[in-house]
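I had to read the description of the data format several times before I understood it. The format is easy to grasp once an entry is in front of the reader. For illustration, here is how one protein appears when written out as sequence plus structure tokens:
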Amino acid sequence: MQNNINASEIDTIVSLILKSARTEAEVGRVLNIIKLFLEQYYFVETGEKTFEENVKRVKDVENVTETDLTLLRQIHQYKSSSFKQESFYKALDDLAKALYSLPRVTLHVPIRLDGVSRERIGAWVQTNISPTVLVSIRVNPLLVAGCGIGWNSQYMEFSMDEKIKNNKDQLFSLLPKL
């Protein structure tokens, strides 16, 4: 079985995906939407297979945003050349490998972030660090009033707990004055 997606097409599709998916979790969600869409197109036996009908079936299973719809319209253009029926799972696997091999910055936070916060952080990282960096968000409830950042095999903590540990002697010297 021959894979019909080439490196240039993978790079183009990765760029399209990174415009809407900035975190590891979002990349997984978007890949799932693409897979569901292509499965609807290739394997569900219904009359006419229009873009809108396939999207409607995907929406029944997954929450699809307007940004996702834009991405699916762009992916729809590649379905006949890059995502052949007989090899689209292999093409999706190659696409996933390309996405998950991108460099990533890991953000350790004390609470689960909402979608708007994750989007803003991802946009900042892709604007200020690199457009091809994924953000991996890890919840660590032991962090107090701050976060930790992992990048290039280094971890830096910016929590209140870390500041107290680093300035313990100075803080203890202030206690008798209180």
About this structure: Helices lie at 7-18, 24-43, 51-59, 66-78, 88-100, 115-128, 160-166, 168-174. The chain is about 55% helix and 10% strand. The mean pLDDT is 80.
